[in-house]
Amino acid sequence: MGARFCTELTAGALESGSLPRMTSTAKDFVRGSLNKRPFRPGGLDDSQSSERILPEGASNGEWVQELLNGGAAQAVPPSFKQGLDLGDLKAYPYAWNVYKEQSSLKCTSYEKMCLQNELSVQFDDLFKKAWEEDVTEFEGDVHLSENESVNSEAEAEKVVVPSNAADTELSALDEILSVPAEGSMSALDEIVDGGGQHKKEAWAVRGGNEGIAERFYELVPDMALDFPFELDKFQKEAIYYLEKGDSVFVAAHTSAGKTVVAEYAFALASKHCTRAVYTAPIKTISNQKYRDFCGKFDVGLLTGDISLRPEASCLIMTTEILRSMLYRGADIIRDIEWVIFDEVHYVNDVERGVVWEEVIIMLPRHINIVLLSATVPNTVEFADWIGRTKQKQIRVTGTTKRPVPLEHCLFYSGELYKICENEIFMPQGFKAAKDVFKKKNMTARNTGSHAAHTAGNGGARSHKRDNSTWGKQNKHFGSHSSGNFSGGGAGYQNNGNNLNNWGLRRSDASLWLLLVNKLSKKSLLPVVIFCFSKNRCDKSADSMAGTDLTSSSEKSEIRVFCDKAFSRLKGSDRILPQVVRVQNLLLRGIAVHHAGLLPIVKEVVEMLFCRGVIKVLFSTETFAMGVNAPARTVVFDTLRKFDGKEYRQLLPGEYTQMAGRAGRRGLDKIGTVIVMCRDEIPEERDLKHIMVGSATRLESQFRLTYIMILHLLRVEELRVEDMLKRSFAEFHAQKKLPEQQQLLMLKLAQPTKAIECIKGEPAIEEYYEMYLEAERCSNEILETVMQSSTAQQFLTPGRVVVVKSQTQSQDHLLGVVVKQPSAVIKQYIVLVLKPEISSPQIPLAGGSSQDSKTADFPHGYMLMPKSKRALEEEYCSSVTSRKGSGVVKINLPHQGSAAGVHYEVRGVDNKEFLCICNCKIKIDQVRLLEDGASVAYSKTVQQLLDTKPDGNKYPPAVHPLKDLKLKDMTLVEKYNKWTNLLQDMATNKCHGCIKLEEHIKIAREIRRHKEEVNSLKFEMSDEALQQMPDFQGRIDVLKEIGCVDADLVVQIKGRVACEMNSGEELICTECLFENQLDDLEPEEAVALMSAFVFQQKNISETSLTPKLAKAKQRLYDTAIRLGELQAKFKLQIDPQEYAQENLKFGLVEVVYEWAKGTAFADICELTDVPEGLIVRTIVRLDETCREFRSAAAIMGNSALYKKMETASNAIKRDIVFAASLYVTGV
Q1: Residue 680 · residue 1040 · CB < 8 Å
Q2: Where is it localised (predicted)?
Q3: Backbone Cα Rg of the chain
C-alpha cells in the first residue's frame, strides 16, 4: 500500500506540469492559490492535452529548420505580444555546422529500413518478454549465469534505453518500499482477483467473495483500528480492500454502518502518516462528523466560514472546499491518501450535483476514493464510470439488509393499519383501511354531516400560504388564536374559508393528540413527523399547546442544557421570540427542525433529540439528510411535496431516506413508519410505488460553468474537452470508443470499387453530387409549391397527381383526384396506381396467346368480349350525364385491378401530395364513387397510364412560376439553381452514358462509405460531446466581456472571476470592473452584495434609501445586459429569468441595518424571512466579502480591499456568528 501511494504520488508530481512545481507559502498550503497549477488529474494519461504545451512550430521542427537556415531564433513566446526588450545588447554572432554521420551515408535506404525493423522487433520483444514471464520465476532464480549476463549485455548494447540518476533513485526507493506491501495481502489476491485476470475485465468489481468475511482476521491480522463490535460482512470486505489500497464504493441503507468504513480510512491515514479527507454535502453533517471523530482521530474542519486545525491528518470539509483546493493546486493535496465522499446519492441534486463529478474527475491518481451512498439501482454503473475515469479499479460492496426492519402503517380514523413489512406490500391491511374509509363516508352521507366533513377536511390538494392573519408571529411559530391552518401541509389545500379556521385547527390538533397518545400507549416514542414546509412544522407544534410529554428529571436536563447552550449569546439575543418559544416547546418534549431556525437553536434541538428527551419532532426533510439521529417511529404528514417548481408525489428514494430514520440500532427490534390519512386514503398503486418501488438512479447533473472553464483554461495541461469527456453524462458514449475505433479501422481497410470510365478520367462523383443537389432542390420546390394556396386551387377532380409512397422501398404513386374534401370526408379522395402486375392473358379460340387485333390497344389495356360484359359495364366513351347524390358509396380504401394494373381509391391528406402534374383527365365521379363500375375504373386507369411520357415514370409537374404564378424570392432562387444544375448535368460527359446507371450505384456506395467513416470520426471527436455547443457559446461570451483573449489566455478579468464562488461569477466580476461599489459606504456595499447569496423567492417588498435603490437598479441592469449577451451567443438563457434567479434583493435593507449595528431582534421585524435564513445569508455574505477582497488585491484596488475588510468586520458579530455547539462543545 505504502509503495503504491509513494509511486503514484511521485508520478503525479512529475506529471503536474511542464515546469517544476514551487512549494507554496504557508498561507496557501491548505486553500491553494490562483498562482498555482492544479495537480494532474488521475486517468488523464491518455489525454492529448499535453500536446498543447509545445507550440506548432516547436513540435513540427519549423523553428529548428529556420535556425539551421540562418534565420533568427524565436524571441516572442506564444500568445505574448512582444518578447524581452534587451536594450542595446546585440546578438552574439554564431554559425551552425551541420554534419551527417558517415555510417548513415553508407547505408542504403533498404538497409536503413531493415535496421529500424530489427530494432523495433527487439524492443517489442523485450517488453513482450517482461510481460509474459512469470513473476515467481524471477523470485526463484535471482542469479544469472555468465552466458545469460553476457547475452543481456549484448542486448543492452543493441537497444539503448534512456535513463538518468533520478530514475535510478526512484526505482531503488520503490524497491525498498514495495517489500512490506506484499506481506499479509498477497494471500487473498489469488482468492479475490483470480490471479489478476478479473481486473482487466471491468473497472467496477462487485464484492461478495465469501473468503474475505470467513478469513478476515487471518487476512487482516494487524488492523489499523479495532471496533468494539462484530463487523458486518460488507464492512469486512470494505476494510480488506482499504488495506489493499483499493478504492471502495459502499452502498447501504441509513444506519447500516457505512461510517465504519470512513473511520477505517482515517485510521489508515494516521497509520501511514498521510492525510484523509471526509467530504459531505451539508455543513451540518461536517460539523457533526467533526464532533464524532474528535475523540478518536487528529481532526480538522474546513467549511466556508470555519477553519479549525487545517494541519490535522484527518480533515472534514464540504465538497465545494475540496473542489476549490483542487482547482487552486493546494500543496496539501500531495499528502492526501484517501478522500471519503459521504451521501454520494447527492450527485442527483440539480444545483450542486456537478460538484461531485468535478471533484472525482480532478483528483490526482495517488488519491484513493471511498464512496458512501444509500442503496441505488445503478451502483455498479456509477463505480464503473469512476474506475474508467480514474483508470483504477473500484470495489463495490454493501448490503440491502436493514439493521432494524421497518413496518409501514396507515393512520386513519384513530387506528393503525399495517400495509407493508420487510419490503413486502400487504394488500389485506390496505383493504381493511379502505373498508373503514368507505363505511365512514357512507355514514357521513347518510347523516348529511357535510359541514363536519368540511371542517375536518385537511384536503388532498395543494397548500396555500396565508400571509394575511399570521403576520410576524407566523414566523415565530404563530399565534395560538389566529391563522389559516392547513391540515395537509405542502401537499394539501385548506377550504379557503376563514370562518372555519378555528374548527380546522382544533380538528388537526386533536388528530395530532390522538396520534401521539396512540404512539405513547404502544411505546412508539420518540417520533419524527416529516412535514414539507417550515410553516407547517411551526403550526403543527403550536397546535399541541396542552401536551406535556416529559418527566420532571427530563425537564431539568433540558433546562440545564439550554441555559449552557444559550449562555454564549448576549442578553438581547437570549430573549429573541424564536429562542423563547423553542425553549417552551422543548420543556414539554416537543420540537421543530427546519431551515428557518437559528443555527444554534437547530443544534440544541438536534442534540437534545439524540439524548432522547424530545418525544415529538416536527421536521422538514433536511433532518433526514443532515442529521444522524434515528427515532423509534417516523410519521409522514403527507406523501406530496413542493420541489421548488410543482407539487408532486414523493419519490421512492426520498421516502426511503426519511423512513430510514425509524428504528434505533441496538434499542428497537423494529422501526415503525406511519402515513397520515385525513379525509382520504392514497391509491394502492401509489403506496406500492413509494414504499417498495426502485430508488432513483444516480444520474449526471454535469453542466458547464464559467468558473470551471476559466480554471481549466488557466492551465495548459488541462482542457475543458477532457472534463466534458470524463463526465458521467458522457460515460456511455466514451465507453463505446474502442468499439468505434475498431469499426473505423475496418471501414478504412475496406477496398473501394474503382470506376472504369470509357470516356477517360471518371467524373461520376461530380455528376452524382450534382444529381443529389438537384434532387434536394426539386424536393424543396415541390414542398413549397404544395404549401401554397394557389396549388390547392389546382387540386380539382381529374387533376393528375403524384402521391408520396408509404414505404421507402416503393416508388411514389401516380394518381388522379376523384373528389375534393367535404364536410363528411375531410380528405381528398384519390385513385392511385399501385406497382404494376403482369397482364392476365386469356387464351383465344385460335390457341395463340395474343390476337393481332389486341396489338392495336395500348400496353396493358384489354377489352373483354361484349358477350361477357355486364349491361352496366357497357363501354361508354362519354362521361355519364346522370347527376350523383355526392355520397361515397364504396368502402374506402377500395382496391381492384384494371388494365393489368392494381389501383386503390383512398383518402389522402394535403401533406401526402408530392407533386401536382400539368395535365388533367376526364373522370366519371358518379360511376367511380357511387356505382363502383369496373368499366369506369378501367377507363380512368388507362387514361392515367396514357399521361406517362415515354421513358418517364410521371407526367411533368406544374411550373411554379409560369403556371402557379408564385413570386416568392426564395422559391425563385431555388428554381433557378435547380435549372442551372440540370444544365450542368446535361453538359457533363457522364450524361447519357450507357454505363451511367451502373456507375451511379458505385458512386452511391462510395458516398455512403465516406459518410459512415466521417460519422464515426465525428462521434469519436470532441465535437460530438453533448455540451460542446454550450461550451463554444460560453467561450464566445468570455471573449466578448474580456475574461479571455482570442488565444483563450485568461486575462486579469478572468482571474477575478475565478475568485467568485458564492455568487454568479459574471455579474460579480462586471460589478467590480464597472466600479459599482466605489460610491457606496461599506454598509451599503455589503447590503447590495447580499443579492448574490440570498436565495428565497416571493418575499415582501423592502424600503431602500435612494442611493441603495439606484445601486440596485444599476446592478440589475448589468445582469440583464449579461443575460442578453449570453442569449445572443445561443445559450439557453432568458435575460429576465437570469437576472431574477441570480439577484434577489429581499435582504438588502436587513443587511444594511445589521451592518450599521442594529440589534438582531429589530432587523427581524423588517422582513418576513425566517431568522435562520437571515443568519445563513449573512454568514455566506462574509465569505463573499473575502472573495471580493481577494479580487480587489488582484485588481490592485486598495480602496475596495479596505472597504471589504470594514464590511466583513461590520457584519461579523453577535448571534449571527455564534460558534457551533458541535465544534466548541456545550
Answers
A1: no
A2: Cytoplasm
A3: 40
Closest CA to 423 of 695, 696, 693, 697: 693
Weakest mean pLDDT among 744-753, 905-914, 1051-1060: 744-753
pLDDT digits (tens, 9 = 90+) for 570-592: 888 999 999 999 999 999 999 99
For residue 239, the number of C-alpha atoms closer than 13 Å in the C-beta half-sphere is: 29
User: Average pLDDT in the 855-859 region?
Assistant: 34
In contact, 993 and 759? CB cutoff 8 Å:
yes
Task: In whole angstroms, give the CA distance from residue 1054 to residue 1045.
Answer: 10
* Residue 678 DSSP label: S
Q: Rounded distance, CA 406 to CA 632, Å?
A: 10
Give the closest residue to 202 by CA, choosing from 387, 376, 396.
Answer: 387
Helices (H), 1129-1159: 1135-1142, 1148-1155
Taking phi first (over 0 means left), then psi (-120 to 50 degrees means alpha), and beta for anything else, what does residue 343 get? left
* pTM of structure: 0.71
Going 1079 to 1083 to 1089 to 1095, the CA torsion angle's sign is negative
Hey, how many other C-beta atoms are within 10 angstroms of the C-beta on 73?
A: 9
**Taking a C-beta distance cutoff of 8 angstroms, is the pair 634, 231 a contact?**
no
Which of 607, 568, 557 is CA-nearest to residue 287? 607
Give the CA angle between residues 103, 109, 113 to the nearest 5°: 95
Task: With a cut of 50, say whether residue 275 has pLDDT above it.
Answer: yes
The long-range contacts involving 849-857, CB below 8 angstroms and separated by at least 24 positions, are none
Q: What is the 3-state secondary structure (H, E, C) of 303-315?
A: CCCCEECCCCCEE
Q: Are 391 and 368 in contact (CB under 8 A)?
A: no
Cell (9 digits) for 648: 408532486
What does the angle CA 663 – CA 667 – CA 673 come to, to the nearest 5 degrees?
Answer: 20
Q: Which helix (H) or strand (E) holds 898?
A: strand 894-898
Q: How far is C-alpha 753 from the geometric centre of its chain's CA atoms?
A: 45
Do residues 258 and 372 lie in contact, with contact meaning Cβ atoms separated by under 8 Å? Answer: yes
Helix (H, G, I), strand (E, B) or coil at 824: coil
C-alpha span between 322 and 645 (Å, rounded): 30
Degrees to nearest 5, angle at CA 1009 with 1003 and 1011: 100
In which residue are the cell numbers 394575511 written?
468
Supply 565's cell numbers: 447552550
Burial 395-414 (b: 16+ CB within 10 A, else e): bbbbbeebbbebbbbbbbee
Q: Give the Cβ contact number of residue 467 at 10 Å.
A: 11
The x, y and z cell numbers of residue 106, run together, are 553508407
Q: How many residues does the chain have?
A: 1226
* 854 contacts: CB under 8 Å, gap ≥ 6: 862
Quote the CA–CA distance of 486 and 535 in Å, as a whole number.
10
Can you name the residues that pair with 884 across neighbouring β-strands? none
- What does the alpha-carbon distance between residue 1132 and residue 1134 come to, in Å, rounded to a whole number? 7
- Distance between the two ends of the chain, CA-based, in angstroms? 40
Distance CA 877, CA 935 (A): 10
How far apart, in whole angstroms, are the C-alpha atoms of residue 706 and residue 111?
56
Nearest Cα to Cα of residue 729 among 700, 704, 697:
700
Beta bridge partners of 619: 530, 593
